[in-house]
Amino acid sequence: MAAPTISKEQAEAIYSKGLEGIIAGETSICSIEQGGLYYRGYEIHDLSKNATFEEVAFVLLEGHKPSAAELSRFKGELVAERAIPASVIQFLREVGPALKRGTAVPMDVCRTAVGLLGHLDPDCQDNSGPANLRKAKRLLAKCPSIIGHMQSVIDGRELVEPERGGDPTLSHAANLLYLMTGKKPSPEFARCMDVSLILYAEHDFNASTFTCRVIAGTLSDMHGAVCGGIAALKGPLHGGANEAAMEMLKRIDAHIKKGGTVESYMQNAFETKEKLMGFGHRVYKNGDHRAPILGALGREIARKQGPDSLKWFEIGDKVQKIMLEQKKIHPNVDFPCGMTYFVMGIPVPQYTPIFVASRLSGWCAHIIEQHANNRIIRPLSKYTGEPVRSWNG
Questions:
Q1: Domain holding 139: CATH number?
Q2: Measured in whole angstroms, how far is the alpha carbon of residue 9 from the centre of its chain?
Q3: Residues 119-128: tens digit of each pLDDT
Q4: More confident residue, 11 or 313
């Protein structure tokens, strides 16, 4: 066992709860700066304006911007792997009643489905770079099918083209919407979903990615690490924030319908210390670079749909203004995501699974990177328990 590079006394001197401000490793995948978010050197505004999700996923997984031929090959690989095995489909059907009752939730179903895929993947126990890349592409391709078929089961509809995992002519984002709804999305909806997937694809050593790296650091397999990432992302302080943000907006809307105002709701929330989701970020101090990108796309969709859709963004504007003026806290990307997905008609419980469909690209890139240059992640702890004492004293 390798000795620690610093003593425990030295470590205690730089102790930071939640590892805030502590560098826990190196990565060439992503950099979060106060002035921008970068995927392998490409800034997020540039990517959201000029790239597609498939191109971004290629950059994350294969390490460079694809040529036309490479992108065509990559897209073909994803399309070929979209269909999920019959046993996983059977699981989705069997868990349907529990999903409808609420005793099962979509994120847990996603986690179990990924675990089942691991049993069936011929490369599951192979942690080599080529095998990991093949598994990453399979997981990325199959996740929208898991989400879409799950929603069809919840809605009591026939599964959408299960034999091939949707329509091979559709993009990753458009096919995800098609699988969930049974309808081919408009170009505007498809582009909005595509950009949201780009924005959620990668974000440095966040909780779920760090979980993946901790698991991969033990030399466990990619499917196991991804299951851990999904479990971490489920939490409302991480991926579940977009769902919680929309539920908060619904409560504010109900409050308004009873004669209240956004201001009175927020004042009560402050007084009762209600957790207001979709605001603040551990890293960004001057606002999340991703939030205005998705917010603008969602607002335009809502504007075209009319007042009933636009009202969510108008309520959101007031909430953001109050939070900034009174608490000096900016929204993060989860706040506009909740509103945007809602006006697109996406069921709220599927918001975080869609996050998974995107973040898989980043998780798998980090798992590949961890396996390629591994050191087990084993931090120290600061003991706060009883002093030394005798059992028979």
A1: 1.10.580.10
A2: 37
A3: 999 999 999 9
A4: 313
Indicate whether 177 and 223 sit together in one domain.
yes
Asked if 254 and 128 touch (Cβ cutoff 8 Å), the reply is no
What is the pLDDT at residue 20? 73
CA distances from 83 to 139, 162, 179 (A): 11, 6, 11
Q: Which of 95, 197, 110 is nearest to 148 (CA)?
A: 110
Residue with tokens 């607002």: 299
Asked whether residue 170 is assigned to any structural domain, the reply reads yes
Whether residue 163 sits in one domain with residue 78: yes
For residue 331, the enclosing domain spans: 241-343
Catalytic site positions:
281, 334
Q: Please state the rounded mean pLDDT for residues 50-64.
A: 98
Report the amino acid identity of residue 295.
G
Provide the token pair at 50: 């000029």
The total number of residues shown for the chain amounts to 393
Number of domains in the chain: 2
Task: Read off the DSSP letter of residue 290.
Answer: T
Confidence of residue 282 (pLDDT cuts 50, 70, 90): low
Q: Answer whether 223's CB lies under 8 Å from 118's CB.
A: yes
The pTM for the full model equals 0.92
Instruction: Tell me how many degrees the CA angle 54-59-56 measures, rounded to the nearest 5.
Output: 35
